[in-house]
Specification:
single chain; Phosphorylase Kinase, domain 1; Transferase(Phosphotransferase), domain 1; 6-stranded antiparallel sheet; 36% helix
């Protein structure tokens, strides 16, 4: 939405959109509305927070900015659209997201605060307010992300997934739009969104199969999801993360096709081109890592997201695990990558042999009795030791003896 003004509900004074509190009485300001696009929720309270501004509209609902009337804490409030409320599965996903995330507390997973009904028969969920953008918006066809940024994002996502998996929660719908990139001085900070698909496939499998992509976005679905199987485990998230890493590194979707059906067929039957073939800047060592993460049989994939991230780091010449690199500033990762690419220092030349060479003068060649030009038998090449001299002497004697025998035979 375009930036608009805000007004104080008490005194009516208007302020720029970035002014959150009235300069006169400290009242929380509320965003002014276009009469042609009026939302009655603005200025009202949902749960413990006042709805003060519209932030964005998505397929599932509208996101508002909220403020606590006492602490003035800033939050995001997501309210389901009226048509979405009619879909039992969508509502169940929304509730499940809240129930799941409240059991977890992790820096790379969005924090949720409240869930409830709205006066207009919808549902709302309050969560931490995030400043930044979804990974989906940061990705563009043909525009890969820098390797240091990819490694930081992959490690943070892997760490968050392993934490969720430790609770038995499988995301099942991991995709770039569900990975939010918060702004920070050290680089992106991940927040994984939408854990609403957790455990839903087993409980509502028939319904989810009928609607196709409600659980799992087609580009990032694992083969077992594409086939509608119920034996989905953490390796489904490993597959999705591998496909996201592929896209971040190459600027190309791993299983791209014009229709959902063809996408699913590609996921079940095809393998994407190796990342280093799509983009020469990607090290060939990365190919095997991505290939293993995208294996059709889940038993052949990495068992955990952490293992995937660890091997991706190694492919770039970095040691350590995802937990360590997830916290490093992107500038530090860039420096480490530059160091890993630096060729090794040249080895020092081996020291010369301590054995002194025997200086021997080289005489003029002489004619042997065989008519062959030979070196003077007393002349020894430089550097030949005592043992070598004895061998040369024997050779010289042998030549003389053979020459004498031939001379007798020719008489």
């Amino acid at each position: 939405m375009a930036s608009v003004s805000r007004s104080c509900p008490e005194c009516g004074e208007s302020f720029p959109d970035e002014v959150f509190f009235c300069g006169r009485d400290g009242t929380i300001t509320v965003q002014d509305q276009d009469p042609g696009d009026f939302d009655s929720r603005l200025g009202k309270q949902l749960g413990g927070y006042i709805v003060v501004a519209r932030v964005a509209d998505g397929a599932m609902g509208r996101v508002f900015e909220g403020r606590h009337p006492d602490t003035r804490a800033r939050v995001a409030i997501k309210v389901l659209h009226a048509d979405v409320v009619q879909d039992r599965v969508a509502v169940e996903r929304f509730k499940r997201e809240f129930e799941t995330v409240t059991e977890m507390e992790h820096p790379y997973i969005v924090r949720v605060l409240e869930f409830g009904d709205t006066p207009d028969a919808s549902y709302f969920m309050t969560m931490e307010y995030l400043v930044g953008e979804e990974l989906g918006k940061a990705l563009a066809p043909g525009q890969p992300l820098p390797p240091a940024r990819v490694l930081r994002l992959a490690c943070q996502t892997a760490v968050a997934l392993e934490y969720a998996h430790s609770f038995g929660f499988i995301h099942r719908d991991l995709k770039p739009d569900n990975i939010f990139l918060c702004e920070s001085e050290d680089g992106d900070e991940v927040r994984i969104l939408d854990f609403g698909s957790v455990k839903l496939q087993m409980e509502l499998g028939a319904k989810l199969t009928a609607i196709g992509t409600t659980v799992g976005s087609p580009f990032y679905m694992s083969p077992e999801q594409a086939m509608g199987r119920s034996d989905v485990d953490q390796r489904t998230d490993v597959f999705a993360l591998s496909a996201i890493i592929y896209e971040m590194l190459t600027g190309k979707v791993a299983f791209e096709a014009p229709t959902v059906a063809k996408i699913l067929m590609r996921i079940m039957n095809d393998s994407p081109d190796a990342p280093s073939q799509v983009l020469l800047a990607v090290p060939a060592s990365v190919d095997a890592v991505v290939d293993r993460g995208l294996r059709k049989e889940k038993e052949e994939r990495y068992a955990t997201a952490g293992e995937l991230a660890r091997d991706l780091l190694r492919a770039y010449g970095l040691s350590g695990d995802a937990q360590a690199w997830a916290r490093k500033p992107v500038a530090e990762i860039e420096a480490a990558l530059a160091e890993a690419e630096r060729p090794p220092a040249p080895q020092a030349e081996p020291a010369a042999s301590a054995e002194p060479a025997m200086p021997v003068a080289k005489g003029p060649p002489t004619q042997s009795t065989l008519g062959l030009a030979t070196e003077d038998p007393l002349t020894v090449p430089a550097g030949v030791g005592g043992g070598g001299m004895a061998k040369l002497a024997l050779i010289a004697v042998g030549v003389l003896v053979i020459g004498g025998v031939l001379a007798l035979l020719l008489r």
